[in-house]
Amino acid sequence: MNNELDFEGYTCPVPIRPNDTVVLGHGSGGTLSHDLLKRLFLPELGKAAPRALDDSAVIVIDGERYALTTDSHVVSPLFFPGGDIGRLAICGTVNDLAMIGAKPITLTCGFVIEEGLSFDILQKVVASMKEASDEAGVYIAAGDTKVVQKGGADKLFINTSGIGKITEGINISGVNASEGDVIILSGTIGDHGIAVLSAREDLGFETTLESDVAPLNRLMEAMLSAGDVHVLRDPTRGGLATSLVEISEQSNVIIEIVEERLPVKPAVKAACEMLGFDPLFIANEGKLVAFVKESDADKVLNMMKKTKYGKDAEIIGRVIGAGKPQVRLKTTIGGTRLVDMLPGEMLPRIC
Question: Which of 23, 24, 139, 180 has a C-alpha 20 to 30 A away from that of 75?
């Protein structure tokens, strides 16, 4: 009889914090990911990155500001309703640049391919990357391929890096949230995570819901033309809850959001109720949350609603004060509960 228990990949109400090994939860984007970043990577490698918790670094060359970012994509399965790993890789890096207010210029891509992957699958992924990069208005300037032996990877991993230009006068960062800021969400939450879960045969779970994976740089540009935006963040791994907690900690502010204003599709609600998930923690790949100067909020919201990826935008809350970082949720039954980061990993390999 095997008495060993394997909790890797599951969420415990009281988070388990392993001491000497990496577990899937370290890739969740939540508490364990931040612990890994703050304890290991930043002390050794983060001295030149004062805003390391933003989606992109800001570098200055000859007096001009540029954004630089890199991201790896390990989604399973490779194809899911509404998208695939190729579109995800392009959109993810374009959005990381956009969330710092940069206009994407060019990307690079690196492929780690498992021996045995069919050329047909690889061709479909590359075609999807071309389509997504055309939509975003960026080009791929360089790339690399590595092939590993069968069993050395799971079919295909893609890394994309990108550089973008920040226009003079734009200053967007997670450190800029301030009292009175209005919080705007660009659309429904949880679509991507539930769409990927539905594609996993081992779950036996079906839905017609499609992923929201999309490039958000055009939406970002429209928003900046309408008003003073202080913070932008795309709530990917860890979902909206983790993004809001990150911003509250970066800016030392108290955030309050209203549950009944959170847009959630019925299919996502039903899936979450069945699986025991909270939509606040489900990954998104085509949504953003913005902290906007109060006097400009209506102008920015109206501009968002005129765009393809912002037509369902809603005001979901505001920054109610400075001080000890905190995110509060006003519930539909009139109560208030504190919102924290995702403690572990509800399901791995989601983006």
Answer: 139
Q: Return the structure tokens found at 345.
A: 């990993």
> In 3D, which of 29, 74, 55 has the Cα closest to residue 351?
74
Range from 158-162, 190-194, 203-207 carrying the lowest mean pLDDT: 203-207
Q: What DSSP line would sit under 234-255, residue for residue?
A: ---TTHHHHHHHHHHHHHTEEE
Task: Examine residue 279 and say whether the peptide bond preceding it is cis (omega within 30 degrees of 0).
Answer: no
| d(C-alpha 255, C-alpha 325), whole Å | 8
Task: Tell me the DSSP string of 3-40.
Answer: -----TT---SS----SSS--GGGGSSSHHHHHHIIII
**Structure tokens given for 100:** 């710092």
The pair phi, psi for residue 83, each rounded to 5°, is 180, -170
Is 240 within 8 Å of 188 (Cβ atoms)? no
- Residue 299 vs residues 9, 287, 351: alpha-carbon distances, Å: 43, 19, 32
The rounded distance, in Å, linking the Cα atoms of 207 and 274 is 12
Residues 182 and 294: beta-carbon distance below 8 Å: yes
DSSP state letter for 259? G
- Measured distance CA(228)–CA(178) in Å, rounded: 12
Does 13 score more than 80 pLDDT?
no
Nearest Cα to 27, choosing from 260, 304, 346? Answer: 346
User: Does a cis peptide bond (omega within 30 degrees of 0) precede residue 77?
Assistant: yes
Output the pTM of the full model: 0.91
In total, the chain counts a number of residues equal to 351
Q: Give strand pairing partners of 329.
A: 257, 337
CA–centroid distance for 161 within its chain: 15
Those residues with Cβ within 8 angstroms of residue 169's Cβ, 6 or more apart along the chain or in another chain:
none
At residue 91, what is the residue type?
C
Mean pLDDT of the chain: 91
